[in-house]
Amino acid sequence: MEFISTRGKVEKIGFLDAVLMGLADDGGLLIPSEIPQVSASKLKEWSQLSYQDLAYEIFSLYIGEEIPKNELKQLIAESYATFRDPEVTPVRKITDKLYVLELFHGPTFAFKDVALQFLGNLYAYISKKQNEIINILGATSGDTGASAIEGVRGKEGIRICILHPHQKVSKVQELQMTTVHDENVMNLAVKGTFDDCQGMIKDLFADTVFKNQYHLRAINSINFARILAQTVYYFYAYFKVQNADEQKVNFSVPTGNFGDIFAGYLAKRMGLPVNKLILATNENNILERFIKEGVYKPGQFHMTYSPSMDIQVASNFERYLYYLLDENAELVASLMAQFKKEGQITINQENLAKTQELFAAHGVMGAECLQTISAYYQQHQYLLDPHTACGVAAFEQCNGSDEVCITLSTAHPAKFNESIERCNIEQTYPEQIKQLFDKPQYQQVVDNDQDEVVELLKKFFV
Ligand SMILES: N[C@@H](CCOP(=O)(O)O)C(=O)O
């Protein structure tokens, strides 16, 4: 399998090089040169597999011979041995129409662990095998940071710096990142928004001289390995809910950076018979507006009950755009340049219709989010975190009467007690989260200033 850039200006590279490159050197995003196709008979075989065996089958399609079979199996086994549920990502039936795919059984109680436990181990593997320096630079609106740090903390040959928006993540998210006092970890709290943090790291990755000199590696979903690992649970969950009366299966996906839902899109393109992808978001609803109106244009930033989705510019939108525009890299490059200059992309009616055939969207406002948490707690004794609540509210808006829906539960409610308390629900923290409150924090608060960040990175990355 070879990888190319959405902007068409990068030579084809293999999987491991794509992982190391992170953001494509031409500023685009890496994607497989062809999407592997999975036949109906293969899907039937796969439906019987454990999570780990399924991950092995799917990863192999993209990794080929680059990692020997036994070593890949070992990497997968280690990555999912840290999960608290033997199924890794179990599916719970809530009603006849609604299933919840619990993605929060990993070390940091968020879906990011599913990919980042693997990517952390993969980086350690590459560092050892190829003697590569791995200096990770990432941006987070709360979950990715903690999960990436947990994935690589203490690992030899790896350093990690995470930028998060100061005081714009939940207390537990902040503690998960900043109570880590390992020598290879640096947390920068930027006085700005997640978009500022993501903008900064994207600029630094696009500066190929700086990137290569400091061996910058990505853990955000700009890295294709993240997307790949996240496709696995779409297959796994689909197989769990396939029903006797063969109702269509939708997925409702809380999303900010378009990465998780893009993984679902990729699964569908590989041959998984997903019906509709329901995009759930909050007041920061650029993606909802794109799906409903065909205009991609950042709006006003809002702090919400679901801070991980407080994002205006969604990284993976470019990957979708590439496929929507029939893999026309030149057109993608010119539209992205236009976006940089004019701050907006508008697609034509034909492409809007294509988008709406596959996606539905609902931006869930604060009151609706809290109402959904309360209602599901009272009626089904199931406590949703605020992001999952947005997913469930979007399911209620967008699911058809002859369809079932799997909502991705992206995080454990204990990560967002600020919102849960507003519903007058008292929850018990898992022990790992309770302990965080007694630990000292290590972070540097910095201005929203790229030069200041660069100076700190130069000292930290060797
Ligand atoms: N919601 C994310 C933002 C970063 O997204 P990613 O999928 O590109 O890592 C977070 O919680 O940090």
Automatic annotation (TrEMBL):
Record domain Threonine synthase N-terminal: where: 3-80
EC numbers for this chain: 4.2.3.1
Involved pathway(s): Amino-acid biosynthesis
UniProt keyword annotations, A-Z: Amino-acid biosynthesis, Lyase, Pyridoxal phosphate
Top-rank lineage group of the source organism: Bacteria
Pfam families listed in its UniProt record: THR4_C, Thr_synth_N
InterPro entries: Ser/Thr_deHydtase_PyrdxlP-BS, Thr_synth_N, Thr_synth_N_sf, Thr_synthase-like, Threonine_Synthase, TrpB-like_PALP_sf
Swiss-Prot/TrEMBL cofactor(s): pyridoxal 5'-phosphate
Catalytically driven reaction(s): O-phospho-L-homoserine + H2O = L-threonine + phosphate
Entry keyword annotation includes Amino-acid biosynthesis: yes
Molecular function per GO: threonine synthase activity
PROSITE patterns documented for this protein: DEHYDRATASE_SER_THR (PS00165)
Enzyme class: lyase
Family designation: Belongs to the threonine synthase family.
Its biological purpose: Catalyzes the gamma-elimination of phosphate from L-phosphohomoserine and the beta-addition of water to produce L-threonine.
Name of the protein described by the UniProt record: Threonine synthase
